[in-house]
Amino acid sequence: xxxERPHIHRPKVETFDIAARTNVDPKGFVRPVEHYREExxxxxxxxxxDHPRFHYLESWIIPELGIRASILHFTPEHVRDWDFYVDIGxxxxxxxxxxxxxxxxxLIVQTGRSVELLDVDELLEANTTGILDPKxxxxxxxxxxxxxxxxxxxxxxxxxxLTSVGMPVTWR
Length: 172
Hints:
This protein has three helices and ten strands, in the order ββββββββββααα.
């Protein structure tokens, strides 16, 4: 019996256009953004979502750490037992437009309890097939490890970790 390999897609790319107040998702859909806030170290975005499981999305994009931390406001029938979803990737600040390239790895944070690393198989498959080069794959693993260590060292509290590194975040 052969082990099933994950279906590997190219890295998901998004744009965040501050002037136009839009977010272009990985499928090319243009979403209106309710609120952007730039800080020297990151970008906050808040917008409504037309997803079947959640109705609102808040994200902090933090290029220096290689993370996008999000709160998904789930509908009552799809509530999850976690607080934050953290994407690992490359995030680039432009003058008016920021971009993100997702590098497969994700973290699920249950504040005060745990941090779980997801999709290592996808990262490894992307590296093996040449979709991600070894340097990018290594950077993704190091960014994920740094985030896991930082969050765990602060009582499994994402906000506390970010504050400790001079990047205090606030949410809606």
